[in-house]
Amino acid sequence: MFRAELDAIDLKILRELQRDGRMTNVELSDRVGISAPPCLRRMRKLEEAGIIEGYHALLSAPKLGFDLVAFCMVGLKHQSEANLKAFAAATNGWPLVRQAWMVNGDSDFLLHCVAENLTGFQDFVIETLTANEHVDTVRTMLTIRQVKRLGLVEI
């Protein structure tokens, strides 16, 4: 299913679910203006097509004791396919790394990190990240405060 195949109701469903993925099917059907059974069928179709990848709770990191958010721009020693894949796989074993992107430009990867505190983040950077055999450079950016938080896609 491609965006061209999504009609106005499908887009409304996606928009509403991105705002609140916890609502009931009845509430969703009311919001998008169709009855519950066809709404559920449309949702299932969007899930099967991989457009809806899952449902998650947004957690408050500070209230759970994770007060530091940082980004790391990582440059590898060599950008061979094997090294890129190996580093990407390594990120899966680092719980502090919450999201990772392979990027182009001055760096090869951008890592979104969440830690309990500065010491925990520094330990990760020094003992794990820079110690990785593929890593050449690491530039870190500590965040001050999040000023915008929306769903990942504008629908």
In short:
The chain has 155 residues and is an alpha+beta fold.
Q: What class do helices, strands and sheet pairing give? A: alpha+beta
CATH topology of the largest domain: Alpha-Beta Plaits
Helix content: 25-40%
Query: How large, in whole angstroms, is the Cα Rg?
Result: 20 Å
Q: Tell me about the largest β-sheet.
A: 4 strands, antiparallel
Descriptors:
155 residues, 2 domains, Arc Repressor Mutant, subunit A, Alpha-Beta Plaits, four-stranded antiparallel beta sheet, 36% helix, elongated, alpha+beta
Summarize the SSE layout with pairings:
Blueprint: H1 8-19, H2 25-32, H3 36-48, E1 68-76, H4 81-91, E2 97-102, E3 109-115, H5 118-129, E4 135-142
Antiparallel strand pairs: 1-3, 1-4, 2-3
